[in-house]
Specification:
Layout: H1 3-60, H2 64-147
Amino acid sequence: MSRRNKGMDMVARVEETRERKAALKMAQHRRSLRAQEQYLADLMRYHGDYAQSLLDALARGVDSAKLSHYRNFIARLEEAIARQERQVESSRRAHDQSHSEWLQRRRRADAIDHVLERGRALKSSEAHKQEQRESDAEGVRHWVMKGK
């Protein structure tokens, strides 16, 4: 293998390693995003359940202290939901960024592989042509020798 091919193979291996790392990072961000989305869904479900409990309590009649407790707790849940929505958005941006980085690495690795494959095909074609020239030359020598 020529020095140039060894160098290109090394570049390809490095880029494939970078692409794998980018894929792992993207997967980590995807898992984090899913966990953040799940936590948001849990908060929203809990908010809905608690709001329903408040409505049920109001239908039965509730004292002002308990009503104040319900309202304060629901307000804190709404704040938590707003914070979690921001966290989900932040996680989504991180995932999108890591996805873009992975795509860039994947395209670069594919381009390097394509260049290497073209080089191999060219080298194979050149070797085949050289074999054909040698075979033709041998055929001519044999024909000349036979004619003598």
